Amino acid sequence: MLEILIVVGVILFYYKRKRIRESGGIPGNGSLPNTTVTTPGSKPPAGANPYARQPDKAAGRNGMPVARGGTRQAAQRKPMQAAIQEAKEDGHSTTAYLMEKAEADAREHERETYEEQRRLYENRGGLAVAERFLDGDSIPQGRRLVRCGYCGADNLIPTAARTGYSCYFCREPLK
Questions:
Q1: CB–CB of 163/128 below 8 Å?
Q2: What is the rounded distance in angstroms from the CA atom of residue 100 to the CA atom of residue 83?
Q3: If we measure between CA atoms, which residue out of 83, 80, 58 comes closest to residue 69?
Q4: What per-residue confidence (pLDDT) applies to 175?
Q5: Which residue, among 32, 34, 54, 58, has the nearest Cα to 42 in the 3D structure?
Q6: What are the helix (H) ranges across 53-92?
Q7: What integer pLDDT is reported at residue 74 of this predicted model?
Q8: What's the Cα-to-Cα distance from 109 to each of 1, 81, 103, 114, 126, rounded to whole Å?
Q9: CA 88/CA 167 separation, integer angstroms
Q10: What is the DSSP string of 93-111?
Q11: Mean pLDDT by 10-residue block, N- to C-terminus, for the chain (175 residues)?
Q12: Is 10 helix (H, G, I), strand (E, B) or coil?
């Protein structure tokens, strides 16, 4: 009895998968009723959504701009500003506001991180902090193990260290 249920389940799974592939890859994707297509020179019908996004001729399959003769990074430079500008043009003020807020939060986070690093640098006397070493870990290539003279903690520093380092735990200078 259990075998029959398993066989029926597998058959249903493959049948459902076949239907999804035939419909274009999205479950429930069929023809949409009352869809209209507007050409660049024509006006949309009276009942059409004025905020509907028009397809971009320079966009690829997923709506992102396609780099022509450049690298992928060239197409991905400053996507946040482009998205904000597009949202403003489309009239989606809430979306534009949220994107601007996220960008402002990211800038604030970077500024706070920079200030924290600068404060720590000043408090440590200009010494970089060594990496933490846990018992049982292997020592990576290009690093050496140094024991702190104050707290006795093991720290990892580069083999050819050109700058001074401080202990990961107590921030005392390592020798």
A1: yes
A2: 10
A3: 58
A4: 80
A5: 54
A6: 72-75, 79-90
A7: 47
A8: 60, 18, 10, 9, 23
A9: 50
A10: HHHHHHHHHHHHHHHHHHH
A11: 89 85 61 53 57 52 48 56 73 76 93 86 78 89 92 92 84 85
A12: helix
